[in-house]
Amino acid sequence: MTINADPQELAKFGELAHRWWDPDSEFKPLHQINPLRLDWINSLCPLAGKTVLDVGCGGGILSDSMARRGAKVLGIDLSTKPLKVAQLHAMEAGTENIEYREIAVEALAAERPESFDAVTCMEMLEHVPDPASVVQALGTLVKPGGWVFLSTLNRNFKSFMLAIVGAEYVLKMLPAGTHEYARFLKPSELAQFCRDAGLELQGAKGMSFNPLTQRYSLGSDADVNYLLACRKPA
Q1: Of 9, 39, 74, 192, most Cβ neighbours within 10 A?
Q2: Three-state SS for 202?
Q3: Are the CB atoms for 174 and 3 separated by under 8 Å?
Q4: Positions at the binding site for S-adenosyl-L-methionine
Q5: What keywords tag this UniProt record (predicted)?
């Protein structure tokens, strides 16, 4: 089975892995948006006592925070170094109920179908060759009645100007080459992937960045970053 991953993308995040938990590093935006994502997820699917899978967990910023909200969390990724950083951080921080594995989401879906109350896949779909395959696996992994949460980047002129030109080259918030415009997904495309995976759309949010206040917020503007919440029919 060919693995649905881009070796260059894995290497890129591997090289930066040691900086993952530095809130002033290249991963500063992830640290800034994490409380917004966490609260939104928790408002729809209260995490305490839930079994949660975080797909493309990287260094574990979201995984760790969900475990601290009382969930039993499994974080998976195919990039070895970020996973080691995630494991080390959990150990140092004393985070309980958290485990990390290096495994493809499609392989885990074959191994553990309908095992999770909630599945998250944040800021990952724009880095894989076949995002529809990932979403299909998410639909397999979640229990009937369970939740799937996704976030990615919209594909339009504004997102190109803000997420690539602005964030990577002008403001230098992200390393140049972090994103590839052709891999961005329109909300309609991602919603179709979700329907094809047997998931029902429950809600959507846009995420905006204000360069003056240096703050992110969730709202209705989905032109650049957006999040989708889906459920698997019970």
Answers
A1: 74
A2: strand
A3: no
A4: 37, 56, 77, 122
A5: Methyltransferase, S-adenosyl-L-methionine, Transferase, Ubiquinone biosynthesis
Between CA 64 and CA 71 the distance in angstroms is: 10
Supply φ then ψ for residue 62, to 5 degrees: -75, -45
User: Which residues, including other chains, have CB under 8 Å from residue 73's CB and lie 6 or more apart?
Assistant: 52, 53, 54, 63, 64, 66, 67, 97, 98, 99
Mean pLDDT check: name the lowest of 8-22, 97-111, 172-186: 172-186
62-102, pLDDT tens digit by residue? Answer: 999 999 999 999 999 999 999 999 999 999 999 999 999 99
Task: Print burial letters for 134-168: b (CB count within 10 Å at least 16), e (below 16).
Answer: bbbbbbbbbbeebbbbbbbbbbeeebbebbbebbb
Which residues are part of a known binding site? 37, 56, 77, 122
